[in-house]
Amino acid sequence: MSVGAGIGLYIAILTVFLMLYRVKGAILIGIFLTSIISWPRPTSVTYFPHTAAGDSAFDFFKQVVTFRPLQKIGNAIDYNYNKGRVWYALITFLYVDILDTTGTLYAMAKFAGLRDPVTLDFENSTIAYCVDAFSISMGALMGTSPVTAFIESATGISEGGKTGITAMVTGIAFFVSVFFAPIFASIPSWATGGALVIVGSLMIRNVRDINWDYVGDSVPAFLTLIIIPLTYNIAYGVIAGIISYVLINGVAWALRKISNDRLAPPNYDAAEVWVIPPGSIVPTWMRFVASRTGLYHEPVMEMHMQQRGGSMDSVSMEHDKHVHVQGRGTPIVLDKPEETTF
């Protein structure tokens, strides 16, 4: 173990104790404390060793406040679409970005407790996808690194950031960091590595929801979990999980059908049942346009579910011929009196 990694480990343990006593900003304290220890040059844990690379990094660090002009920006793309490799790359980037964004958004929404327990979706998910798609497209046109959702968002969520104000403050902080690039670019990797490990330990609690009693469910889930960190790519893990799930459960399903359930797995009843969450497979914007043109009429109950965040756990139909919704929405008149609880 290197000296820097050792310092990062000790500070990570200190961060855990700070979190244990619920000290606000414990993760940030750990990151900056490790950075401050690593910045002085006359130490064995310095981030700026006396080498050519270390001297160059230290010269940049000493500027503290500076602004590097963007030399290559805007229309930084080669529009040569005559080659097949270009389309292969575009398709690859498309599905990788979709899977990466899906895995990140839904993992962060569940980690923040923002996913609806009924629809398994989170509020304004369509807008989130559209913003991500627009941002990554504009980033590509500007010649920058991908402007998309990153799993490091879990660090901010663990500190309590769960609203749009968090995103706005983060954007302002990124703008400020442009001028203080020498400081933020000099934060060593062993300062942030421990923080991500701690956040990962907080996120791993979601494995409790995996059906470990049936191999057809547990193996694909485990492959997804293990391949993501090994390949440094969320998309590869999701692909491995989907393919393994289809192969394992598809073969078992085919054998059951062919043998008339004589070759069914012994504990097949323990398999997780497939359910289709309530709602529509038609995107929200398509339903909005269709409703404006009179081509689509949204069910009344579905509209009230959306007004209430998608939950039907507190809808009661009482004898007064009304549906009382605990929250927003107006009563719905029924044709006959009855009492039903959803």
UniProtKB/TrEMBL annotation:
It is a multi-pass membrane protein. InterPro entries: Azg-like (IPR045018), NCS2 (IPR006043). GO terms for molecular function: purine nucleobase transmembrane transporter activity. The keyword Transport applies. It is found in: Endomembrane system. GO terms for cellular component: endomembrane system; plasma membrane. GO terms for biological process: adenine transport; guanine transport. It holds the Pfam family Xan_ur_permease. The chain crosses the membrane at residues 6-33, 86-106, 126-151, 163-181, 234-255. This is Xanthine/uracil permease. The keyword Transport applies. Belongs to the nucleobase:cation symporter-2 (NCS2) (TC 2.A.40) family. Azg-like subfamily. Keywords: Membrane, Transmembrane, Transmembrane helix, Transport. Its main location: membrane.
